[in-house]
Design brief:
17 helices, alpha/beta, Rossmann fold, four-stranded parallel β-sheet, 3 domains, 430 residues, 9% strand
């Protein structure tokens, strides 16, 4: 299956660059010679195909097609431009930017459509078997209701409507033989005491995918299941801590983009500061709160002052305008340039709340293994005025970002922040 998909991707990329080559030769005077066409198209196809295979991760259930398209186009075209720059410098090819860009667009579109189609086909053939049924299983139940063969549990009364009860654990082998599931999801605490590990290992050796419900929860909802976290996992695992290499790469483009935005938006910030000084009443132009940053290091989160300092806390006229135009938090770019924050990361939290929430939820401390950000994965999915129950959901998204954080996830967050995907913030997740 993997080899076949790779071959199909190669053929689709070949078709994409062949189409770009035909357009180039028909609309650009002179065209390319036979040797140039062979070298240009061959190098482009191989480079783009290698880039596609490099990023050919399994498509997640809720992935957005255009994000996958942009990732493939950006990586493939970037590698192609570097390769063609070398070939042009060696006088082997000429006038290739159009071919690289046009071929990249068509190839990325074709490959993305094929991958999405293959993912849909793969999902349609899956047959899930739930072993046990707890609160985590209840949250993910509706996500694969159409492909669920049933549930093995000793407590059938806990099952929701539409879930077929297949008996208790004593009928495990019989259920496997009769229903032949492709996926087994184990959803019970201390399952190793109730389900034979050797039986599950035998299932895996037969090609059946065996997972725990927190892993499925994370894959469907793109957030870590805190309910399934055990203290030993927090103690021994480094998965929920920021990767030092990712943080180092992030700091490079964070500084570059932060300084660029600060320079570009400086006139807007100066105009807003002047408006606050003239029409915002007596008081400082900037205000701030002490927040916990990377490794709990405190910093002052900056924003334009929008309220009066007469004890009433009323919003000023210029403050309402800044809030409506979403300019209040522009001074946070200064926090980014100073190194207090990143462009993307968990939402900044006041130091006193951070200490209290860490006491309430011990895993909360892991969100401070990366810098807080202006934009974030949790911001895309949760409202800003969170309450404690919603804070639990927010920390699940934050931990997912800490665990999976990379350049591509940052790019997706930035794109979705300004071009929100359909269904985002719609509350699909429980």
């Amino acid at each position: 299956m993997r080899v076949r998909d790779s071959l199909i991707n190669f053929l689709l990329i070949s078709a994409g660059f062949a189409a770009a080559l035909v357009v180039y030769n028909n609309f650009f005077a002179g065209g390319l010679t036979s040797s140039e066409m062979l070298l240009t198209s061959g190098a482009s196809i191989l480079a783009f195909w290698a880039a596609t295979e490099l990023r050919n991760d399994p498509v997640q259930e809720s992935a957005t097609w255009w994000v996958a398209f942009i990732e493939r186009f950006s990586l493939g075209t970037g590698i192609n431009l570097l390769l063609h720059a070398i070939l042009t410098y060696a006088f082997l090819v000429r006038r290739t930017p159009f071919l690289v860009a046009a071929g990249g667009v068509v190839s990325a579109a074709l490959v993305t459509l094929h991958v999405q189609f293959a993912a849909d086909r793969e999902r349609s053939r899956k047959r899930f078997l739930l072993v046990g049924f707890d609160s985590v299983a209840d949250k993910i139940f509706r996500m694969f209701r159409g492909s669920l063969v049933g549930v093995i549990t000793g407590q059938p009364a806990a099952l929701p409507a539409g879930a077929a009860h297949l008996g208790d654990l004593s009928r495990f082998e019989e259920v496997l033989s009769r229903h032949q599931p492709t996926n087994i999801v184990v959803s019970m605490k201390e399952w190793e005491r109730q389900v034979s590990p050797s039986a599950l290992l035998a299932c895996r050796l037969k090609g059946i995918e065996v997972e725990e419900s927190p892993a499925v929860y994370e894959r469907f909802f793109h957030r870590v299941c805190c309910e399934g976290l055990r203290p030993v996992e927090l103690l021994l695992s480094s998965a929920l801590r920021g990767d030092s290499r990712t943080i180092a790469v992030q700091s490079v483009y964070t500084d570059l983009v932060g300084i660029t935005l600060l320079v570009v938006l400086a006139p807007v910030m100066l105009f807003a500061a002047l408006a606050v000084r003239l029409f915002g009443g007596p008081g400082p132009v900037l205000e701030g709160s002490v927040c916990a940053g990377f490794q709990y290091i405190p910093f002052r989160l900056l924003r334009f002052r929008t309220t009066r300092l007469d004890g009433t806390g009323t919003v000023t006229g210029v403050g309402r305008i800044l809030n409506r135009l979403r300019l209040t938090n522009l001074p946070q770019l200064l926090n980014v340039v100073r190194g207090d924050m990143a462009l993307v990361g968990p939402r900044p939290v006041r130091a006193e709340f951070a200490a209290w929430l860490t006491d309430v939820m011990p895993f909360y401390s892991h969100r401070f293994s990366v810098k807080p950000g202006i934009l974030g994965w949790a911001r895309l999915h949760t409202p800003s005025d969170v309450r404690l129950p919603d804070e639990c959901r927010q920390i699940e998204y934050d931990l997912f970002y800490v665990k999976e954080g990379c350049v591509w996830l940052d790019a997706e967050i930035i794109l979705d922040s300004f071009l929100p995907s359909p269904g985002r913030r719609s509350g699909v997740a429980p």
